[in-house]
């Protein structure tokens, strides 16, 4: 009897922790549930739905028509999309590098605990918090292409211009990039300021004792110590650059002659004005695939470097 | 290693289960649209594309309708993403009973299958409306798909103080326009000693097809057109005709050779165009009569005149537009038809022009015999707008299955042509073949 009653006991003792473990395993998911639910509703589901729509000619009322890969084939042969992709790459790279360099320079100038510097940093940071639409209005006025535009009046004093800025296909993209750099450089500055504050002062002192000058200290102490910070700045910048929309949409709407058109506003145009949601979904899907591929590549590259 | 591996595996599995459960729930939620159309009982649901005080004007009209018929109306008005919201309601198969939107939506709505064909005999007064307004609600095959509610045509606003300063009179022909535009640009009409004014105001962005919208009057004045009808609802593009090319040449002459258009016009939408005229940057602006109110609320008030559009070699036709009422699929058709009939009675049309002075939802009446000038506080400019509409109003090809896409195409090419100051003939030939291909893609190529 005793042996009989004892016999199942080990199985129970094994089973009980397993159930406990199961419950324990579920707990983190419960904590995550609100965020997951949020992402599911606002991110995963729309993404899946978008991929589904990319295979159809979308007709909300009459029912969608299956077109297979047609939308994708069209996207690959669309010269306007190709130039939008090219502009996006140029815009993203130029903006990322431009803002990082300007941000770094600002950080070097404005790093430190002094109260006055804090005031300057706040002033310089303002463009980041101002709405892009307001900034676009401001810059459209400043960059008015006539002789009496604000920027052109200043240039006139230096004997230059008047420049067409946003109104010429040759200078529209450059002008948009300058506005973006103006807006995002202070953001990069803040990250660099944090990075600079984290550098051990003794390193500078040691370098000075070894006879290193200002530039050498910058080259051999500051820059290597800021490598992780720079990675963050560049990654955030590329993400921002790839999905550029408001800047283009409000400043030039992609014009003139498509000279500043980038992928996301072009996609938006297909979905709204041209009412071609299937095609727009195909462009988005391709864009998603490219982004995922790039992310994986960067991760692998970083993984290799770290190992 | 193995234990950790299975642990991760199990966790991953739990994750997948949670995510798929969430997605499944969502799928079920999204799939549960009833599939039914608008309610067969309850108030008439009317969606209006508009904003601001317009709702007050429509409220007054609907109140009068309810008082007369006992049928209640539940209006919903928005300007933001109106068409997107309508698409959402179409995919849920719960469309409103009536939609009041731009006349230019006709072809798009028809090809989406969301509107009903209108039986002219069941909407009282429909056949008595002005023939022009009626033409704006017919599809390429001649079937009526909407009921017109309001109309308008573009007129030319000119700075009269600038004209006086330079001893000029308002332009009547293209040659006059060129002369006045040059004087406005070069002879300092605002007498501030700076060369900071321009003759012509063009909203030349590709957004919403504005550049084509503006240029269309030039095209018709040159005697050209976007398409010619081949009968049976088929069309052939005619944008490479000598007349169309001369309209493109005229535009390029103004923008590239004479340089009398405001700089930055290639990115300017109508808001920027309005601002340019209001702030004294430009002196001539071809736009709709709704701009009277916009301009009069700015410092340019009293400093400009409205005149008939200038005549080109092919006449003085000008862009006409309108507001139409669409009966939606699954609507309470009888009641919606009653409302449509009520909206085109002279009394309601008058109410639409006068009920709320800041929001004249009826710009020019579609019912003959009403005096627009008297209705709009005895403003003679409205009398001019009415005459211009009747004599020279020309609608765009709104009834084509996707006119917006065609207008966008024209805009992209025109904007490119002016941006590069490229030869107009080649640009128009290229546009014409693209336009023809787009007509074919829409199934209406001849």
TrEMBL record, chain A:
Q: Which GO terms describe its biological process?
A: transmembrane transport
Keyword line? Cell membrane, Membrane, Transmembrane, Transmembrane helix, Transport
Q: Which residues does the UniProt record annotate as the domain ABC transmembrane type-1? A: 85-298
The record's section on CDD domains has: TM_PBP2
Pfam families referenced in this protein's UniProt entry, alphabetically: BPD_transp_1
Concerning InterPro entries, the annotation shows: ABC_transporter_permease, MetI-like, MetI-like_sf
* Compartment(s) of residence: Cell membrane
What membrane topology does this protein have? Multi-pass membrane protein
Which chain regions cross the lipid bilayer? Answer: 26-45, 84-110, 122-144, 277-298
The terms describing its cellular component in GO are:
plasma membrane
Q: Which family does it belong to?
A: Belongs to the binding-protein-dependent transport system permease family.
Name assigned to this protein: Sugar ABC transporter permease
Q: Give the originating organism.
A: Streptantibioticus silvisoli
Lineage of origin:
Bacteria, Bacillati, Actinomycetota, Actinomycetes, Kitasatosporales
Automatic annotation (TrEMBL), chain B:
The record's section on SUPFAM superfamilies has: Periplasmic binding protein-like II
* Protein's UniProt keywords contain Membrane: yes
Annotated InterPro entries: Bact_solute-bd_prot1, SBP
Q: Which UniProt keywords apply?
A: Cell membrane, Lipoprotein, Membrane, Palmitate, Signal
Signal peptide as annotated in the record: none
Pfam families in the record: SBP_bac_1
Q: What is this protein called?
A: Sugar ABC transporter substrate-binding protein
Q: Which organism is it from?
A: Streptantibioticus silvisoli
List the taxonomic lineage. Bacteria, Bacillati, Actinomycetota, Actinomycetes, Kitasatosporales
